[in-house]
Amino acid sequence: MKRAALIAALWVAMVRTAMAAPAITVYTTSFLPVAHDNVPNVTVYWLDEPEQPLSALSVGLPATVEEAAPVVLSRMNTPGGKRLMGDLKRAYQGVVNAWLNNVSQLPAILIDDRYVLYGVYDVNEALTIFENHQARRGR
After folding, report:
1. Would you say residue 80 has pLDDT above 60?
2. What's the whole-model pTM score?
3. How far apart are CA 71 and CA 96, in angstroms?
């Protein structure tokens, strides 16, 4: 039994090596981590990431919008504020990409911008599921 599993794992590894590595995009949150060790071409978007720069930007703000707006604007014009705004832009790019790719559940693993697997917490496992599906379809 162990030998058969080893042979199957070696076969999958050889097939992956022979094929061009697919582009993989992971959409998840810090509460739903997805393992992606030793997998090339993986981009991970943490969809709860915008909370961090927003929290940093809003520390100690006055209670009213009228009072808070000038404080936020002055913070945004500092080197730290500009860095935070860059972080915020990068963080929201993942949210936008998830929306554009019609991601409806998390975690989601998108393969080659065409195939999505939901509820899988390991990219290697997702690739195995995908490759088995493709093999059954004759691709």
Report:
1. yes
2. 0.73
3. 28
Strand partners, 28: 46
Q: Going edge to edge, which strands form the sheet with 42-46?
A: 42-46, 24-28, 108-111, 115-118
- CA–CA separation, 105 and 93 (whole Å): 17
Q: Taking each helix axis from N to C terminus, what angle separates 123-136 and 2-18, rounded to the nearest 10 degrees?
A: 80
As a whole number of angstroms, the distance between CA 62 and CA 41 comes to: 44
Q: Which residues pair with 46 in a beta bridge?
A: 28
What's the CA gap between 61 and 99, in Å, rounded?
31
Which three-class secondary structure string do you get for the chain? CHHHHHHHHHHHHHHHHHCCCCCEEEEECCCCCCECCCCCCEEEEECCCCHHHHHHHHCCCCCCHHHHHHHHHHHHCCHHHHHHHHHHHHHHHHHHHHHHCCCCCCCEEEECCCEEEECCCEHHHHHHHHHHHHHHCCC
How far apart are the C-alpha atoms of 124 and 41, rounded to whole Å? 12
| Over residues 23-42, mean pLDDT | 93
